[in-house]
Specification:
pyridoxal phosphate binding; EC 2.6.1.1; 44% helix; binds pyridoxal-5'-phosphate; 14 helices; two-stranded parallel ribbon; PyrdxlP-dep_Trfase_small
Length: 413
């Protein structure tokens, strides 16, 4: 028999499997709190008003056939200009100096996942074979890095007894550094804000301790910024980790810094796959040109060039001052609704045995429920959470929050 007969079964995607089960569930009160897609107070996934207007403008400007051609390998030049300005002038003003020194290599990517894929491929080819993720983390992190050539996948302590554990985190990194004589620097993935799944983020003071240690240990920082704006409602405020990390009076990243950025959540462009990878190089233009050339080769070999439509929509939002202001408002509305859902849950529940939602950032509530409690919710009430107890807050609204809180209350001992 051929080799194709002996392919082992890959484990199913846990979250998407739950959605299939949800779709087949006949209970009228069924509630899907699994997937990280924003839904409004009517349970709908809607296009943001700013994005819908940009789409309308794009439709009007369509000329026959012209817009279906290929984009360049590294993406649309206008997108590049708009996103570089958004990230390295507006979100992080000290980036201007880096742009002037021609130290930022940039590619438009297939959203945040695509940015992580290109980054991990590049890093495994040239710089590193060890990566550290928080425990827990978005499960696809380890998958992406493994698929793209990383041999050593590790997790640092992040969460303990319902709290962020910064001391445990730092001591894990120190211990690992002492016990290795690898000549390749290790990478570390950092959630820029709204940590998925715990919703617990370090404070700025804690980030300083953490980044000081990462810098001292000469690790390569990879900032995963998938939820910019969904924490405070202000896209610029939420870029605090980028601003701290690129403060050159404090840190010089001798092996570069990688930023994987996504417009999936903050523009609602999920399926259009709009995002970017930027590599901040340590020295001037020559180093950047080499990195550029290798990123281009990787993209060419992986998928040739990114899709066009979503990046054209983002271009209009980012470059039209009226729509940009509207977008800021849209993001703020999302963050406010998420905060109000958390406040309503906090009122209705006793948080001795569950996580206090008002301390958590972003789209998710890490409830602290164990797998058997999650099963009980699903079996008895048709309320679907991810097995680790992660609850997607935007699935809650005025029509189901009482039902869900009643079911949660029944679990309280
Ligand atoms: N990183 C984290 C932590 C995420 O939660 C997600 C999405 O759920 C992503 C990256 C990437 O999402 P996308 O590829 O849709 O931009």
């Amino acid at each position: 028999s051929g080799r194709i007969n002996s392919i082992p079964m890959a484990p199913p995607d846990k979250i998407l499997g739950l959605t299939e089960q949800f779709n087949a569930d006949k209970n009228d009160n069924k509630t899907n709190l699994t997937v990280g897609i924003y839904k409004d107070n009517w349970g709908q996934v809607t296009t943001m008003p700013s994005v819908a207007r940009a789409q309308a403008m794009l439709d009007q400007s369509f000329e026959m056939n012209t817009d279906l051609s290929y984009l360049p390998i590294k993406g649309c030049p206008d997108f590049r200009e708009n996103v570089l300005r958004f990230l390295y002038r507006e979100s992080c003003p000290q980036g201007v100096e880096l742009l002037n020194q021609e130290r930022i290599s940039f590619v438009q990517t297939l959203s945040g996942t695509g940015a992580l894929a290109v980054a991990s491929k590049f890093l495994s080819l040239f710089m590193s074979h060890t990566v550290w993720f928080p425990n827990p983390s978005w499960p696809n992190h380890a998958n992406v890095f493994q698929i793209n050539g990383f041999k050593n996948i590790n997790h640092y302590t992040y969460y303990k007894d319902g709290q962020l554990d910064v001391d445990g985190w730092i001591s894990d990194l120190e211990k690992a550094a002492k016990s290795t004589n690898d000549s390749f620097p290790p990478c570390i993935v950092l959630h820029a804000c709204c940590h998925n799944p715990t919703g617990l983020d370090p404070t700025l003071e804690q980030w300083k301790r953490i980044m000081d240690k990462i810098h001292e240990l000469k690790m390569i920082p990879i900032i995963d910024m998938a939820y910019q704006g969904l924490d405070t409602g202000d896209v610029y405020k939420d870029a605090y980790l980028l601003r701290l990390s690129l403060d050159e009076s404090r840190y010089q990243w001798s092996n570069g810094l990688f930023l994987c950025q996504s417009f999936a959540k903050n523009m609602g462009l999920y399926g259009e796959r709009v995002g970017s990878l930027s590599v901040v190089t340590s020295r001037g233009a020559e180093e950047k040109r080499s990195v550029d050339s290798q990123l281009k080769k990787i993209v060419r070999g992986m998928y040739s060039s990114p899709p066009g439509y979503g990046s054209r929509v983002a271009n209009i939002v980012l470059s039209n001052p009226h729509l940009k202001n509207l977008w800021f408002q849209d993001v703020e509305n999302i963050a406010k609704r998420l905060q109000s859902v958390k406040a309503k849950m906090a009122e209705r529940l006793n948080w001795d045995s569950l996580q206090d939602p008002t301390r958590q950032h972003g789209m998710f509530l890490y409830t602290g429920l164990n797998a058997s409690e999650v099963n009980t919710l699903r079996e008895d009430s048709s309320i679907y959470l991810v097995q680790d107890g992660r609850l997607s807050l935007s699935g809650l609204n005025d029509s189901n929050i009482d039902y869900v809180c009643d079911a949660l209350r029944k679990l309280e001992k």
